[in-house]
Predict the structure of Glycosyltransferase.
Amino acid sequence: MEHPKKFSPGTSAIVFLLFAGFLYICVWSPSNPLLPFVQPSGSPKDFTPVEFAVKDELDLALEEASMRNKTVIIAVVNRAYVEQSVNAETTMLDLFLESFWLGEDTRPLLDHLLLVAVDKTAYDRCMFKRLHCYRLVTEGVDFGEEKVFMSRDFIKMMWRRTFFLTEVLRRGYSFIFTDTDVVWLRNPLTKLSLNETDDLQISVDKYFGSRRPEHNLINTGFYYIRSNNKTISLFDKWYSLKDNSTRKKEQDVLLDLLRHGVVTELDLRVRFLETRHFSGFCEDSKDVGAVTTVHANCCRHINAKVRDLTAVLRDWKRFKAALTKYPKAARNITRSFGWSRHDGCLNSWKPQTLT
Ligand SMILES: *[C@@H]1O[C@H](CO)[C@@H](O)[C@H](O)[C@H]1NC(C)=O
Ligand SMILES: *[C@@H]1O[C@H](CO)[C@@H](O)[C@H](O)[C@H]1NC(C)=O
Ligand SMILES: *[C@@H]1O[C@H](CO)[C@@H](O)[C@H](O)[C@H]1NC(C)=O
Ligand SMILES: *[C@@H]1O[C@H](CO)[C@@H](O)[C@H](O)[C@H]1NC(C)=O
Ligand SMILES: *[C@@H]1O[C@H](CO)[C@@H](O)[C@H](O)[C@H]1NC(C)=O
């Protein structure tokens, strides 16, 4: 019973008021930079002020990461992509970042990468790496665990992503979207069309050389989209189909849209990116002299992707080292180059690896 003697009722009241004021600032002030860290716990109604703060944070994050022409590179990460399991030597995020270091003319691009973290661990990891980070809060969902391809939560996470990206377009930013299981070996801006009339340039699993949407197997793991009314309409339309597309992932919904006339309807110009430049495990680029990105597509599990992308970076380092050592044999080295087999990913579809 020491305290009542030390503090007069007046002092207690002041302390109480100060504390209440502090709480008020912490919890309610829309300008409070701490807010995005707050875990959602209240009802949706309690959360209205947070929405404002999150929007301001997004503006800020986009501004910081953007090139002068309002273009950003966006990747989404969750805990499974940033945390090392006991036996792993690296993480997907680290491999992804390492590729910007090893690639040609890719280091400056890191300044324009906005990492969107869907859980706190991913956000902390991003901040630790001193990158541009944005925390995407979703109420009542834990996006931290690995989401196995086509599981319910996987699909939910993908839709949340589409909603977020629509918002980015609405704010006037064009962007290159990249999954983090894509390694960047060269600067893609040198292989993308910079013609302003091209609205969407998207990677494919297999390239058939056709410009017709119905002939292309798009992959939303890598694309470049310009912000304009047509692309905003496209994304709005895409997202609006969320609840009428059970058991379909968002990529298939977009594929359906493209195949069923949305391109003509919205007067969109869509280009499908060649696997020669934008390679993947579904179809390897046959030209290491032109390859820009490599996507661990056609692969089911993160461990397999990490393993096989590590091999891709090893192949690339060997290739670059050989070029440095024998500059006169560059043609031969390029022609005789072959990618390592993607055994981890091939096996990831077998039932026994699911355990
Ligand atoms: C935007 O600016 C970057 C960096 O200056 C440049 O590489 C890129 O080609 C520009 N994008 C467009 C669409 O002009
Ligand atoms: C962009 O593409 C359009 C349509 O193909 C073409 O008419 C125009 O000349 C191109 N612009 C540039 C700068 O290449
Ligand atoms: C896009 O839409 C906005 C608002 O509806 C309109 O003001 C603007 O002129 C449109 N821009 C183009 C290029 O159609
Ligand atoms: C869902 O899709 C089906 C088939 O395309 C269509 O007939 C139906 O009207 C859609 N329902 C809603 C609610 O959009
Ligand atoms: C390239 O390879 C061919 C046959 O493998 C060989 O005859 C030629 O000398 C090589 N050229 C160089 C510059 O190493």
